[in-house]
Large ribosomal subunit protein eL43
Amino acid sequence: MGRTKIVGIAGRFGPRYGSTLRKRWKEVMEKRYADHQCPFCGFVGRVYRISVGIWACKKCGATWAGAAYTPRSELSKYFPTVIKR
């Protein structure tokens, strides 16, 4: 492998699956692994995904429901919900 300057994270697929699907997948995964801001404490970089749609902040300990690949969906911007366990 090694030469993934243009294809980035999708370079692990090599020539398989077609360029359009690899570009779409790359776009989604770059959004998922980007640094996100916690909606509760405002800290950037310590937000991680627990499961599909469930996100948490390592700094303040808040857990909330978001989108599958981003911590804030369009609806969650208007109706923030904290999951209390």
Q: What stands out?
A: DSSP finds two helices and three strands in the chain. The chain has two domains: 1-33, 35-79.
